[in-house]
Amino acid sequence: GGLPQQLSVNLLTAVKVSLNITKATLEDLASQGLLSSNNITVDDKWASCTQASGSCPSDQRSPDQCCYFHVNVHSCLNKPGSFCGPWVGNDGRLATHTPAQTGFAGTTGQDVFTFDVRLFWEGSYTVIAHFKFAKMHFAIGTTREVVFSDALCPLPTVPNADGTCEACPNGSQPLSLGIPRGGRKMTDEEADAQGVNPLCIQCPAGFYSSNGTECKEAEPGYYQPQSGQDRQLACEAGTSNPLRGMTRCMACNPGQYAAGAAELCSLCAKGTYTANTSAAVCTACPGVRTTDSMGSTRISDCLCPARTYVPPGHADAWACANCSAEASCEGLGAIPKALPGFYLHEVGRDSLSIFQCRGDAKRCPGGGVGACPAGRSGVACAICADRHVEQSDGTCGPCGGGDTVLFSLAVVGCAIALVMVYVIAARQDRSTQSHATVLVSTGLAQIIGIVQMLSVMGSLRVAWPSSVTGILSHFAIAKFDIDTVKLGCLMSYDPVLNYSFRLLIVLIFLVILLMVHGVVLLCRKKGLMQEWSALVGACGACTAALFVSICMTALTPFQCQTHPNGVWTMIGYEAERCWDDDSNAQQGMIGMAVVAILFVLAFLAGMSWLVITYPRQIQKGNVQFLNATAFLFNRFKPECRGVALAILIRALLMAVIPVMPDIMTQLFGVLIIFLITITMSSSLMPFRFAINNFVEYTAGCCFIMMVVVGAAYATQDRDVGLVGDVGAVLVIMALLTTFVPIARGCFVRLLSRKAAYQFFLSHHKAAAAAMSRLLKMQLQGHPRTKGEVFLDSDNLVDLDTLLDTVSHHTGVVVALCTRDYLARPWCLAEVVVAHVNHVPAFPIRFESFEAPDKDWIAQVGDNVDMYVLTEKGLSLDATEAALTWFAALPYVKFSAQVKSVTLQKLVDKIVTNDTSGVVRSDTVGYANTMEVASKALDVAQKPYILADTDNWEAAATAHVLCALAGKHMRGEQQPVVFGCEEGDVPEVRMSCAVLLLTKGCFTSRAVAFGLFQTMDRYLLCLPVLAEASFPTITPEDNQAMDLLTAEYCAAADGHFSGDDVRFYLTNCFRQIAVDFTPSKDMATLDLQAGRIADRLRKGQQQQQAPPQGAQVVL
What we know:
Blueprint: E1 6-8, E2 12-20, H1 23-31, H2 42-49, E3 68-77, E4 94-97, E5 101-103, E6 110-118, E7 123-133, E8 136-147, H3 149-152, E9 157-159, E10 165-167, E11 172-174, H4 188-194, E12 200-202, E13 207-208, E14 216-217, E15 222-223, E16 233-234, E17 239-240, E18 250-251, E19 256-257, E20 266-267, E21 272-273, E22 283-284, E23 308-309, E24 321-322, E25 327-328, E26 337-338, E27 342-347, E28 352-356, E29 376-377, E30 383-384, E31 388-390, E32 396-398, H5 401-426, H6 435-459, H7 466-472, H8 495-524, H9 532-545, H10 547-554, E33 560-562, E34 568-570, E35 573-577, H11 584-619, H12 623-628, H13 630-633, H14 642-656, H15 663-684, H16 690-714, H17 723-751, E36 757-762, H18 765-780, E37 788-790, H19 792-795, H20 802-808, E38 810-817, H21 825-836, E39 841-846, H22 854-858, H23 860-863, H24 867-871, H25 876-888, E40 892-894, H26 900-912, E41 918-919, E42 942-946, H27 952-967, E43 976-978, E44 990-997, H28 1005-1016, E45 1021-1025, H29 1035-1052, H30 1058-1069, E46 1074-1075, H31 1082-1099
Parallel strand pairs: 1-8, 36-37, 36-38, 38-39, 39-40, 40-41, 42-43, 42-44, 44-45, 45-46
Antiparallel strand pairs: 2-6, 3-4, 3-5, 3-7, 7-8, 9-10, 11-12, 13-14, 15-16, 17-18, 19-20, 21-22, 23-24, 25-26, 27-28, 29-30, 31-32, 33-34, 34-35
Helix pairs in contact: 1-2, 5-8, 5-9, 6-16, 6-17, 7-17, 8-9, 8-11, 10-11, 10-14, 11-14, 15-16, 16-17, 18-27, 20-21, 21-25, 27-31, 28-29
């Protein structure tokens, strides 16, 4: 008894066993033979038991002598499904077994035995009281729950012996939390001696408990050497502790340090060191020096850091100098080295002298002072050894036999090119020169110009990617870079001599041209100044073509580049310094450059004078001037001749760009130049051929895009992806576009071997537009016409191509000679060009034409505006010769009315080249297939065209309209031309009429008589304007109309007057007139004829209102 319902683990608990015995119990046992084995009576047993309480003597502890000879307490930990019996059965687990006690039952038969029981595990227990009495074993049990102490007392308190809860002292923890590593539980005696609860475990060394709740391990960086402590101690400076629960800290090794409470000793950082143990701090290296690793243990480990180097001979033993960005200074005692693409000239006390190797960076592999590849030396490795030439890998190798051959081939090639230039200039005659030739020569000039522009782009300070540099390097020859032709194999390195030779190249070229000119004139036995235009043209073409190269070469001494060390050197002569008093090379070059610049300015001044004097020379008819300056003006339209000077100025400005010191300024300058270029190309279209304007515009756009690419590389130190490839594509595009006009010119030249037009109709448009249109229609329908027929209204695209068509694309020039035909500049130019280029001519003389006589020919300069002819290269002498030839040519005289028969005769003569005889009218009236067949009435009504048949231009217009309108009225009655002659009053069956309005048409009998018939029958009469400026009806027209009205009424028994006719015309003119101008192109005429046919078709059944007798004056 006395057990609480819950017991605490490991808590000593008093278990009381209360025993009560009576005589009745003894009697019951006796009856069963269980009282004694010695036949003791009930009274004897009762007497022996009912003695005073106490233990049996040790010699009387037998069943008969001692009442309770064995009393103790057992405990059993219950398990699921187990049973704890009186003596702990097989299923139970023994937990406790107290020592046995003996004793008497007391005088009343009752006694209490007390046992101290300690239960060690958590769970359900059966506590059993076991005692022996007589011959019997007795077991009495009860079940209790055993829990940790905090279940009885909340942590951090523990139960004490009196059953209350108390806290553990500092430096300990409740037993319920376990026993820390290295700790132990005190015995009851120790606990009693120290006056502490045995359920409180004292913290061992390495642990501490600040409030008696839990023993904690000393953290890393701390320690605790004693047990039962309430705090941890921090490691002293210079020591460390990396583990938990440590009782001491360890000293730091040399090269390490630690501040207080350090878990680990830290290595001395780079730039510091320590040679002692237990160091609290490391000592810093002197100056900017540092160590190559952490944990240095001596001062000698302090070296110059990366990007610095040990300067030679410096007073401060520990000093370090800063490295350049273009060098590799690994520091720590390593020797500075230049990066690839740079040259280390000198290691100074305060800095490195670094030169950048621009252009071919492979010539500077980098390395120590003066490191150059094989065969190279000098600043930036720019100088090849004597008789050595540059190799593709950046080295300089000994000259071979093929290297000198290259220079010889270059000399021979230049000589041949100069001879060709002279030949082209000598044959420069615009009157015979084909457009294909001009197209090819203009394309070649554009190629040369673009190549030179690309050489300028290669001279900019932009670090182009390798893909672009590889292309631009091939254009170095455009800067007269004679090293590209291996000149180093013939002469030693001398920058002044090299530069002077480059300047003299153009002068040498001009001398060669002069020599060629002298040889030509000597062979022709003429004086040196004769045929000067060929020499001027050749020299001008050579200078203009190479103008960019000349300007760039002249400005070479001023093209300087800066290096990382602040030194300026000359571009192209990297070993020579700029603006240095000791640089004799640059000073000598500048003197020669001044002379070259004066030459450039003088050439520009001369070209400016040519541009200004051009109109005056053309007005004077100076064809020799035109041929001599063809190199300047032949590419451009006459009105855009100033563009030639603008292109030369552009070349000069482009040559100045590399002189600018800043990359972005250079790119901005190029951008502005080409923005102006494409603006000029798109707005003025200055070239004679559209394809050359396209090339100029496209190339300008490519250069602008190259500026964008260059800007990307000007602000980046690395490759920016595909931008470099875009730059290479732009360079290729700029070059390829220039080949387009050359290819087209060659193609056109091949086609020009066969005439594109069998006939060329040369006419004065104001006098013979309709006749030429009618002739073209008749010629195209003739079976012997195999080719095309040229008519300016249909085939002329540009006036500049007109004479080229005559000279190179025409089989026969058919000249419609009308009044003032030869007084018209373009008509005369066509005749002169045909004569100069030996093109056959077929003159057709109309009655109004007056053949030129000798006096008129001699005064042709006064009779005709020669500006157009001179501008096309046709001289006065050539014009007079052509007129003499033209006047003597056999011709056909056309003196007939325009009818189908007469037209057929004329066309037959043209296609057979028959210039004999005169084409006259063979019949009276208009009897032909297109007109009225006879005076008899036609069976069917037809639309008639009323035209002035006495005016052959008006008659030709009527025939053209008749043919074109008939195509739109197929399946219907075809229109015919109404006509009559003196004394004829034809009667026809009209359905409607077309009144062709031309000057003087109302004085024509054909117009008047046809108009009378439409009025008499109230038919539709559609007015058609055949002249752009049809005049009003004059009094002469009214007078003629009255006379013709009276004649018609007398012959045809008519009953109307002139006023009736004018009233009828008033009604006609109220309709919207339709234009039909024969000078328009065929498509326009066909469209106009279609409109007229629609009006006729709709109006054939309409009638005009009968006259009311009103008096109307038109």
